[in-house]
């Protein structure tokens, strides 16, 4: 049985350049973590250890010790930067390519120059705050909405169905996410198609490690996790 040692441990180092990982080491590491969706493996700055990135998670593994794994981040004591976070962010930005998103499955709102894809749950409070922000900057944006009903919001799926089946999805988004009201479904026969669309987006999100909302991907492949007004202001050039 594998032990996970020192969760959320911060390792203190003054800087390190990561060398290439041998095929043998990579094979051993993948065998130790067979059910982990590994996105990157780097040599760690301490002997015999490798940094394993799995989405937004980081592990430190010794291929010769299959029973113990360290969970934590590396802090550069000179710059005081979290080096692990920097690598996770860089890997995330490479992983999510705006032009490869299934945009044909999204609800498109706006005709602005800048394009973003937003993965949201209509009942998520931070998603509702994001929607208020986006509505104030809609002239600058084309927004592709991917709706994910999270388990903690029992009415989310019903609200997504109302948006997908609405005559004007943009108005339904405003009604549900800003005004926090329900929207009518004019044609109940739409529900089967809507449920299929929800299932497809959930499948895509799960396969690509998008399990929290809001999650934003810009047309320049910048990833913004959560409702980060500073990151959004920088992207839109808002002062």
TrEMBL record:
InterPro entries documented for this protein: DiS-bond_Isoase_DsbC/G, DiS-bond_isomerase_DsbC/G_N, DiS-bond_isomerase_DsbC/G_N_sf, Thiol:disulfide_interchange, Thioredoxin-like_fold, Thioredoxin-like_sf
Domain Thioredoxin-like fold: 110-220
Domain Disulphide bond isomerase DsbC/G N-terminal: 23-82
Signal peptide per UniProt: 1-19
Chain ranges passing through the membrane: none
Domain of life according to the entry: Bacteria
Record CDD domains: DsbA_DsbC_DsbG
Compartment(s) where it occurs, according to its Swiss-Prot or TrEMBL record: Periplasm
Keyword Disulfide bond: yes
Protein family: Belongs to the thioredoxin family. DsbC subfamily.
Record's function text: Required for disulfide bond formation in some periplasmic proteins. Acts by transferring its disulfide bond to other proteins and is reduced in the process.
Protein name: Thiol:disulfide interchange protein
Organism, scientific name: Aquella oligotrophica
């Amino acid at each position: 049985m594998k032990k996970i040692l020192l969760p959320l441990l911060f390792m203190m180092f003054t800087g390190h350049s990561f060398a290439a990982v041998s095929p043998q080491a990579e094979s051993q590491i993948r065998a130790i973590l067979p059910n982990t969706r590994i996105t990157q493996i780097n040599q760690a700055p301490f002997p015999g250890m490798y940094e394993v990135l799995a989405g937004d998670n980081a592990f430190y593994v010794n291929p010769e010790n299959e029973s113990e794994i360290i969970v934590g981040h590396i802090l550069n004591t000179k710059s005081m930067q979290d080096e692990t976070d920097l690598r996770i962010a860089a890997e995330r930005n490479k992983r999510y390519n705006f032009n490869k998103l299934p945009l044909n499955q999204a609800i498109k709102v706006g005709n602005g120059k800048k394009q973003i894809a937003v993965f949201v749950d209509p009942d998520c409070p931070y998603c509702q705050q994001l929607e208020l922000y986006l509505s104030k900057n809609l002239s600058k944006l084309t927004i592709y909405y991917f709706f994910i009903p999270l388990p903690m919001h029992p009415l989310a799926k019903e609200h997504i169905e109302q948006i997908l089946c609405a005559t004007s999805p943009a108005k339904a988004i405003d009604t549900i996410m800003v005004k926090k009201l329900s929207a009518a479904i004019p044609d109940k026969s739409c529900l089967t198609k809507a449920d299929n669309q929800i299932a497809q987006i959930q499948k895509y999100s799960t396969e690509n490690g998008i399990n929290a909302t809001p999650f934003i991907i810009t047309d320049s492949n910048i990833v913004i996790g959560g409702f980060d007004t500073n990151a959004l202001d920088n992207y839109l050039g808002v002062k």
